[in-house]
UniProtKB/TrEMBL annotation:
Keywords: Cell membrane, Membrane, Transmembrane, Transmembrane helix, Transport. Probably a riboflavin-binding protein that interacts with the energy-coupling factor (ECF) ABC-transporter complex. The keyword Cytoplasm does not apply. GO terms for cellular component: plasma membrane. This is Riboflavin transporter. It is found in: Cell membrane. GO terms for molecular function: riboflavin transmembrane transporter activity. It is a multi-pass membrane protein. The lineage of its organism: Bacteria, Bacillati, Bacillota, Clostridia, Eubacteriales. Pfam families: ECF_trnsprt. The chain crosses the membrane at residues 6-26, 47-71, 109-133, 164-188. It comes from [Clostridium] innocuum 2959. Belongs to the prokaryotic riboflavin transporter (P-RFT) (TC 2.A.87) family.
Length: 202
């Protein structure tokens, strides 16, 4: 029975990870934001899975989503983009699911997702400044001034690293993860009974 239930949990984890990868295919830029950032809703199945199945399951869903995404689209960043995507996903689902696991109320879910959004935004700033941008600068023989110039073309107020972070990276990720969290908050209680019934069915 335990093996059967574990298999069902693994099947759910795999399906939610694959759904996240499919949602990644529909990403798009947001006006006035840095052109190297793209919006998607892959965090929704990751949050739902983390809430329903626990923090470890949430991390596995993020991992599977990244792996499936690489199979579908490959990697044009020598896996640095995929590493960043994994770190951002984990930074979102872990705080959210750990707080929700402590006390399974709508208020705790909202607090958890708020914490996850803030943590993932901080991680996005660090990974963009110290992982993604340096990689592309080295790969394409660019410099930081060229990155800033590409940002200033969509928003003239982004004319330095500081303004790119304050006006670009931070608000973009707050918007991206904030919207994903709000959608999750709206739908989770409606679909979680189906997830639990499937996972616990003998």
């Amino acid at each position: 029975m335990k093996n059967n239930m574990s298999a069902k949990r693994l099947a759910l984890i795999g399906m939610l990870g694959a759904l996240g990868a499919i949602l990644m295919m529909f990403r798009f830029p947001i006006p006035f934001m840095p052109p190297f950032l793209s919006f998607d809703l892959a965090a929704i199945p990751e949050l739902i899975g983390a809430f329903a199945l626990g923090p470890v399951a949430g991390v596995l869903i993020v991992f599977i989503r990244v792996m499936v995404q690489m199979v579908i689209s490959g990697s044009n960043s020598m896996f640095t983009g995929e590493l960043q995507s994994f770190l951002l996903g984990v930074a979102l689902v872990l705080p959210a699911s750990l707080l929700y696991r402590h006390k399974k109320t709508r208020k705790e879910a909202l607090l958890g997702m708020t914490a996850g959004t803030l943590v993932s935004t901080l991680v996005a700033v660090l990974t963009n400044l110290y992982l993604i941008i340096p990689f592309y600068v080295a790969l394409y023989d660019m410099n930081m001034d060229q990155i800033i110039l590409s940002c200033s073309k969509v928003n003239p107020m982004m004319n330095s690293v500081t303004t790119m972070v304050i006006l670009g990276i931070v608000p973009f990720n707050l918007i991206k993860y904030g919207i994903s969290c709000l959608i999750t908050f709206a739908v989770y209680k409606k679909i979680s009974p189906m997830i639990h019934r499937f996972a616990n069915r003998q």
